[in-house]
Amino acid sequence: MVSAPKLTSLLSIIAVYSASAFTAPPANDRNLRISSSPTQLDIFGKAFANDDSLGKRENAGLKKGPNVNEVTVNGKPAKAVAGQKVSQVLAAAKVKMTYSCRKGNCGTCEFIMNGRVEKACGAVMPRGKCTISTY
User: Fold this and answer.
1) CA–CA distances in Å: residue 31 to residues 10, 16, 26, 27, 134
2) Residue 72 class from Cβ within 10 Å (0-12 exposed, 13-18 middle, 19+ buried)?
3) CA 115 – CA 93 distance, rounded (Å)
4) Which of 19, 64, 72, 103 sits between 20 and 30 A of 120, alpha carbons compared?
5) Contact (CB, 8 A) for 122 and 104
6) If you ran DSSP here, which 8-state letter would residue 73 be given?
7) What is the SS3 assignment for 18?
8) Residues of 28-43 as b/e, b for ≥16 C-beta within 10 angstroms?
9) Residue 103's pLDDT is what?
10) What per-residue confidence (pLDDT) applies to 43?
11) What is the pLDDT of residue 63?
12) CB neighbours (10 Å) of residue 128?
């Protein structure tokens, strides 16, 4: 059996060495290398740097901005983009529309667009001038 003083000295040695395993190495360690690269191995190098031969970077969006249509909703002018959902245009124009299924099955969201009956939950804005009237 191990005596108490030997056991305490053995436990203190184990505690010192196990604690040093979980601490950071000193800052002046020669083997410590800190890379400024986002990856440890720097395998990408400058692969993602801008290429000067491509010229000046242009706006990634639409060249002239969105094609805004002239829309009249219940006699009030509103803005809409071709292909935009009619439900979004009605909400932006602050026109209250009732929706039940939002799939085009029930017909509670019917309105008149350019003289034709449409359903707001599935219709999109056409190009050009548009007149919308709700019931």
Assistant:
1) 31, 22, 10, 10, 75
2) middle
3) 19
4) 64
5) yes
6) E
7) helix
8) eeeeeeeeeeeeeeee
9) 84
10) 72
11) 72
12) 11
